[in-house]
UniProtKB/TrEMBL annotation:
<dbReference type="GO" id="GO:0000234">
    <property type="term" value="F:phosphoethanolamine N-methyltransferase activity"/>
</dbReference>
<dbReference type="InterPro" id="IPR041698">
    <property type="entry name" value="Methyltransf_25"/>
</dbReference>
<feature type="domain" description="Methyltransferase">
    <location>
        <begin position="55"/>
        <end position="148"/>
    </location>
</feature>
<keyword id="KW-0808">Transferase</keyword>
<protein>
    <recommendedName>
        <fullName>phosphoethanolamine N-methyltransferase</fullName>
        <ecNumber>2.1.1.103</ecNumber>
    </recommendedName>
</protein>
<comment type="pathway">
    <text>Lipid metabolism.</text>
</comment>
<dbReference type="InterPro" id="IPR029063">
    <property type="entry name" value="SAM-dependent_MTases_sf"/>
</dbReference>
<dbReference type="Pfam" id="PF13649">
    <property type="entry name" value="Methyltransf_25"/>
</dbReference>
<comment type="pathway">
    <text>Phospholipid metabolism; phosphatidylcholine biosynthesis.</text>
</comment>
Length: 460
């Protein structure tokens, strides 16, 4: 009964906009027409090729994505629980003969197993309860064919309009049942699900990437409009996961973990590596108006990372910062929202290889690489592939934790990846002093590692 009441609250929420089936209502934004086209283009450009593919567009509304999906896909099934939205959807797409329509709630949607190649959603999970999110993702896994994709996009931590009161269509006087969850919770959930099909085969979601929607950064200074692309892949050998176990993690455990990390990192005054990198980076490494690729896996310590905002400010450059930890990715987005420097963007990837593939697909060409733990967290093949997304002669500066400072083996290893002009400097004492000062200034108890540190400079 409680679940039904909850669904009724979401239905009531959207019924308020049913008499205005337009773009503003779809985006709950008074100024939606100013950003709708670019938002839609950015989302659609992130999808895999859909030629000869079958798609389900869930929560499709008036069909602002359905139209373009149907232009390339073999078939699109477009669904929404507001009748007037589907009516407008059918009207605007009457010229397309490869779309079927359904009025109904996403939580009750029934589809054949292994019947689609893409499950497309845009602002859907935020209108589901925690349990409904998990149940929906299991259903999506069931509907997808092997190697099929699912796209999600959600407002994380705050509405799409951010803190703005003038552009939002949410009423201050009325209850808003929307869930503005942490971005980290979605990534962890997607990665944790294990589904066993009727043939006994176990499947999982391979999260290809997570990143902010650029339009909302440019138009609203909001980095918390986040979207993800996942792929259904085999997980044979893994145990299947239960909804109840995942629900406890999603609703309680992961939430508490994120809150704890927020308390430690959200008020970071500076990064302890600031001084180390400031002494190593100049305008030759990071030219004015260039774009830096920053890699910060934070495997050995959550505090071992790079101050991308300082980098952008000091060198007047653009920065793409790769995070590999879901919790620290969320804190980076928080900092971005606070700093509001549009030159700085953050993405989450499971690995360096995944990030490189993301940028190879977009024909990226970065001017320099600034990183931590590159050598200690990646295999040889992944590091060699870095050159595929860098410009010729790109400069490289790395801060690496090592057991022993052995200059020649490090130089030989770097050379084997195609780097040249390699220098290796022992910066252990400087790093330990900087780390201790950081801990003192931030009132943190940090487990200081016994490792040494080297600063590596090179070029391609």
């Amino acid at each position: 009964m409680a679940a039904e009441v909850r669904r009724d609250s979401f239905k009531t929420f959207w019924d308020k906009y049913s008499d205005k089936p337009d773009t503003n209502s779809m985006m709950l934004n008074q100024t939606a027409n100013d950003l709708e086209a670019s938002d839609r283009a950015e989302i659609l450009s992130s999808l895999p090729l859909l030629t000869n593919k079958d798609v389900v567009d869930i929560g499709a509304g008036i069909g602002r994505f359905t139209t373009v999906l149907a232009e390339t896909a073999r078939w699109v099934h477009s669904t929404d629980f507001i009748e007037s939205f589907i009516a407008k959807n059918q009207e605007r797409n009457a010229h397309l003969g490869n779309i079927s329509y359904q009025i109904g709630d996403a939580v009750n949607l029934q589809m054949e197993e292994k019947s689609v190649d893409l499950v497309f959603t845009n602002w859907l999970m935020m209108y589901l309860s925690d349990r409904e999110v998990i149940e929906f993702l299991f259903n999506a896994m069931r509907w997808l064919r092997a190697d099929g994709y699912m796209h999600l996009r959600e407002s994380c931590s705050e509405p799409s309009t951010g803190r703005s009161k003038s552009s939002t269509m949410h009423s201050n006087a009325e209850a808003n049942p929307t869930h503005y969850r942490f971005s980290s919770l979605y990534i962890k959930l997607l990665r944790a699900i294990r589904y066993r099909d009727n043939d006994g085969k176990v499947w999982r979601f391979d999260v290809q990437w997570s990143c902010s929607v650029p339009t909302y950064i440019k138009r609203s200074n909001n980095w918390r409009q986040v979207h993800w692309l996942t792929k259904k892949v085999s997980a044979d050998g893994d145990d299947e996961t239960t909804i109840n176990d995942l629900l406890k993690l999603f609703s309680q455990t992961w939430y508490a973990e994120q809150v704890a990390w927020d308390a430690k990192l959200d008020n970071e005054k500076y990064v302890w590596t600031d001084k180390i990198f400031s002494n190593a980076i100049d305008n030759e490494v990071v030219p004015k108006n260039s774009t830096a690729y920053v890699f910060t896996p934070r495997k050995s310590s959550p505090y071992l990372h790079i101050n991308s905002h300082l980098l952008a400010e000091k060198f007047t450059c653009n920065v793409w910062n790769v995070e590999m930890n879901e919790n620290f990715y969320r804190t980076s987005l928080t900092k971005a929202n606070n700093e509001k420097d549009q030159r700085v963007r953050f993405g989450w990837n499971e690995s360096l290889a995944s990030s490189i593939e993301y940028w190879r697909q977009r024909d990226a060409s970065f001017d320099c690489l600034i990183g931590t733990e590159l050598l200690s967290t990646n295999d040889d093949d992944s590091i060699r592939r870095v050159a595929s997304i860098m410009k010729p002669e790109a400069k490289v500066v790395l801060l690496e934790p090592v057991d022993d400072v052995t200059e020649q083996p490090i130089k030989e290893r770097m050379a084997s990846y195609g780097f040249k002009n390699i220098s290796v400097v022992d910066v252990t004492e400087e790093c330990k002093a900087a780390e201790a000062a950081y801990a003192n200034d931030h009132n943190l108890e940090i487990d200081h590692s016994d490792c040494n540190y080297v600063l590596i400079k090179a070029s391609l």
